[in-house]
Design a protein that fits this description.
The structure holds 2 protein chains of 2 kinds.
Chain A (H helix, E strand, L loop, with lengths): L4 E3 L2 E5 L4 E6 L6 E7 L5 E8 L4 E4 L2 E6 L4 E6 L8 E9 L5 E4 L3 E6 L1
Parallel strand pairs in A: 2-11
Antiparallel strand pairs in A: 1-3, 3-8, 4-5, 4-9, 6-7, 7-8, 9-10, 9-11
Chain B lengths: L4 E3 L2 E4 L5 E6 L6 E8 L3 E9 L2 E4 L8 E7 L2 E6 L8 E8 L8 E2 L3 E5 L1
Parallel strand pairs in B: 2-11
Antiparallel strand pairs in B: 1-3, 3-8, 4-5, 4-9, 5-6, 7-8, 9-10, 9-11
Classes of the chains: A mainly beta, B mainly beta.
C-alpha cells in the first residue's frame, strides 16, 4: 500500500510537554501533508512540505521530511489541552493529477 | 469566506431508503472530493471531481453509490438503497489545484442506517 503509516497510534502527554508523531511511507512522493481532526469535526490542514524541503515551521509546529528514509515527523512544542486531536499524515504521489493518501492517524491526548 | 458546507449534518434512516448528501465547495476551488470515515477502515476516498468531471471513482464501494457535480458550486452523493454497513461519517473536501494540493474539509455528515 502507498498509504503513510503514523506512529504511534496513540500518545498521551502532559500539558507543556512536546509531542512527536512520525509518518513512514513506501514510494517517492511529491509532497507530504499533516492534518488535525478534533473529535466530531472535519480535518484541518496544518502543514504541507514538498519533497525538496527538509523542514518547515508553523507556530508551535515543526515538520521534518527525510526522503532517504521515507519518513516525516510532526513536533508540537509546549503542548496544550486544546491540541488534543487525531493527527493524520497524507502522502501525495504522481503530480497534480496524482493521489493524496491519508494514513490512519495518531490520537494525541494532552492532559491539563 | 465560508468554508466547505455540507448538509445535512446528521442523517438517520432505515435500511433500503435513499440517502442524499450535499456539498458546496469553496468558491474558486476546481477539485472536489468525497470521503468516508469509519473506525475500522479510517478515511477512504470515494470519488473526486476536477472541473466538475469525475476523475477517479474507484473508491465508490458499489453501484448503490453515485455522485454528481452539476456545477462548480454543488455536488451530491447518493446511496440507494442504503444498508447498515453504510453508516459512517461522510466528508466533502475541496482544493484549488487538484488532488495533491491542500484539501479543505467540510464538517461532515454523520449517517446512521438502521
Amino acid at each position: 500500500s502507498q498509504q503513510g503509516e503514523e506512529d504511534p497510534q496513540a500518545l498521551s502527554i502532559q500539558e507543556g510537554e512536546n509531542a512527536t508523531m512520525n509518518c513512514s511511507y513506501k514510494t517517492s512522493i511529491n509532497n507530504l501533508q499533516w492534518y488535525r481532526q478534533n473529535s466530531g469535526r472535519g480535518l484541518v490542514h496544518l502543514i504541507l512540505i514538498r519533497s525538496n524541503e527538509r523542514e518547515k515551521h508553523s507556530g508551535r509546529l515543526r515538520v521534518t521530511l527525510d526522503t532517504s528514509k521515507k519518513s516525516s515527523s510532526l513536533l508540537i512544542t509546549a503542548s496544550r489541552a486544546a491540541d488534543t486531536a487525531s493527527y493524520f499524515c497524507a502522502t501525495a504521489y504522481g503530480g497534480s493529477q496524482g493521489n493524496l493518501i491519508f494514513g490512519k492517524g495518531t490520537k494525541l491526548s494532552v492532559k491539563p | 469566506d465560508a468554508g466547505v458546507i455540507q448538509s445535512p449534518r446528521h442523517e438517520v434512516t432505515e435500511m433500503g431508503q435513499e440517502v442524499t448528501l450535499r456539498c458546496k465547495p469553496i468558491s474558486g476551488h476546481n477539485s472536489l472530493f468525497w470521503y468516508r470515515q469509519t473506525m475500522m477502515r479510517g478515511l477512504e476516498l470515494l470519488i473526486y471531481f476536477n472541473n466538475n468531471v469525475p476523475i477517479d471513482d474507484s473508491g465508490m464501494p458499489e453501484d448503490r453509490f453515485s455522485a454528481k457535480m452539476p456545477n462548480a458550486s454543488f455536488s451530491t452523493l447518493k446511496i440507494q438503497p442504503s444498508e447498515p454497513r453504510d453508516s459512517a461519517v461522510y466528508f466533502c473536501a475541496s482544493s484549488l489545484l487538484g488532488h495533491t494540493d491542500t484539501q479543505y474539509f467540510g464538517p461532515g455528515t454523520r449517517l446512521t442506517v438502521l
